[in-house]
# Entry
Amino acid sequence: MNGKTTVISQQQLQQQLDCCNQINIWWREQEITPTAYVETYGCQQNEADSEKIRGLLIESGYAIVGEAEGADVVVMNTCAIREHAEQRVFGNLGALTHTKRRHPRQKIFLCGCMAGQDHVVQRIKKSYPHVDGVFSTHHLWQFPQMLLRILTTGKRTYFVEDEPGSIAEGLPQQRDSQLKAWVSIMYGCNNFCTYCIVPYVRGRERSRKSEDILKECRQLIESGVKDITLLGQNVNSYGKDLEENIDFSDLLRKIAEIPGQFLIRFMTSHPRDASQKLFDTMAASDKIAKQLHLPFQSGSSRVLKAMNRHYDRETYLEKVNYAKSVMPDLVLTSDVIVGFPGETEEEFEETISLIEQVRYDPLFTFIFSPRKGTPAASMDDPTPKDEKNRRFDRLCAVQNTISEQIHNGYIGKTFLCLVDGTDKEHLTARTEGGRLVRFTGDTNLIGTFQYIKVTGATTWSLTGQLALPMDNG
# Structure
């Protein structure tokens, strides 16, 4: 794996934009307005990457459509975190043989984290001849060059070399929402958790310059965006590779100083690097959402060491307790893996006890999925699948009870929420902590902050009504 970082020059970027123009001309000469469909799997970083892919396609003259059937370009932006996700991609990729048969000029691409694994690329080459191109995350910025080559030569093309991790500023971007935006502040990961494929497919950590991030955030806020989520595999490592003397807490503070009414969120935070300075910075600004995703993965210190997480149970709890002390209304979420190789029943019970002690709002739960190329994939794993499923079901039951209890505690309280859309006959809004609230109101409220009094709750969401700021029962 190449550990260097390459900053894509404006000249290199212009060459890609020139390719976009040539694609435009190619289609105009045929008097055709081409269409494109982009399907995204996985995390928010993949969502942000797909926004850039759509931006490059629009720059190339394509109209974005909502399904693969009939589209001139289909891009599958993939996730490699779990086996189930990969098998789903392969199944959907196979089904595209039928759409291409009905629409022979269709060009099909696979990209994202799966494209960074050699065994996946070899499988595509051998078993999926209808796939025209494959490019890894490092080569996203070269998508126009790749597309032009395939259109003009008809040859299958692969941009999957072990290139240095890159940062390409200025790529066109088609965002999914006018109210909410993803902003990538860094790429890659240096942690090498033993179960995780991310460092191998996304490369080592590399931070964007703060001036570029601040410029993007200002433009978003000036355009009316009200909710910005900063993205990175470990945002708390931001700035370690920069010449500039800045860390993630400093960056948060600088963004919060931009004029306007908006909220900043971020994910994901690695507990090892989550500091008191970060929690103090969050507490000090009303523009930084009191929401923290802090994955603990296991409640057992022994398992955490086997996972190469660089913290133990006690350290994690100390950080959580401090964060809650300076932000009493903090909404805390986390990830947890059940059935890591060698996990005993007693160690699983330590995870349950941590959940009961911390009391997460929601929890994202997973059964261990071995990833080829990671150390954990070759670890001895004696626990039967049925036992892992039993533990998973019990953990979910415990967490669902906690989530329901926490949500019931919202009833009668009033929160300032961003009204962000509709759900059948209701409007939807999000609390500062990211909780979904459904209520009745006029659609002209969408895009505004409103005080909403919570009147009902389920495990997963809240219901409410418009209220005055001090209407707290």
Summary: The mean pLDDT is 95. The radius of gyration is 23 Å. The first strand starts at residue 5 and ends at 7. The chain has three domains: 5-166, 177-407, 414-466.
